Amino acid sequence: MGRLLLAQGDIPAAVKSLQDSLDSRRRLAKAQPGSSTPERAVAEAMRALVDIPGSELKWADFRTQVEAMDHQGILWPADRVWLEEARQHDSREVTR
C-alpha cells in the first residue's frame, strides 16, 4: 500500500504505511530469530523508506540491518547489492 501511495504522490501517507509495515515485519522477525525471510522483509521495508522525504529512517539504520544479516549468514545472494548500496550512502551521510 505504501508504494502505491508513494506513486500517487501522497508522501505522508506512504511514509506512515511503510513505517507500519516495517513495524509489523520487525515483530515477525523478532518472533522468528535467525530466519532469513522475515529479516529480509524488514530490510525490504527499510529500503523502501530510506529514500522517502519525511522518513526518519537513515542509511545507517539500513546498513546495520543488512550487515547484521550478512554476519548471520542469512543475506540472500541477490540482496548483496543492498549491502554495498547501504555502505556507500551511509559513508556519504557521515561525511556531511
* Main sheet makeup: none
User: Per DSSP, what share of the residues sits in E-state strands of 2 or more residues?
Assistant: under 5%
What is the multimeric organization of the chains shown?
Answer: single chain
Shape: globular
Question: What's the N-to-C terminus distance?
Answer: 33 Å
> Which regions are unreliable across 5 or more consecutive residues at pLDDT < 50?
none
User: Helix coverage percent of residues?
Assistant: over 70%
User: Which structural class do you get from the secondary structure elements?
Assistant: mainly alpha
Overall average pLDDT: 93
* Whole-number count of domains: 1
Rg, nearest Å: 13 Å
Compute the number of helices: 5
Give the tally of β-strands: 0
- The SSE string, one letter per element, is HHHHH
Description:
The chain has 96 residues and is mainly α. The protein has one domain (2-95). The chain contains five helices and no strands. It has helices spanning 2-7, 11-31, 36-50, 59-72, 80-95. The model has no long low-confidence stretch (mean pLDDT 93).
Chain-wise SSE layout:
Elements: H1 2-7, H2 11-31, H3 36-50, H4 59-72, H5 80-95
Descriptors for this entry?
96 residues, mainly alpha, 5 helices, globular
Brief write-up:
With 96 residues, this protein is mostly helical. The chain has helices at 2-7, 11-31, 36-50, 59-72, 80-95.
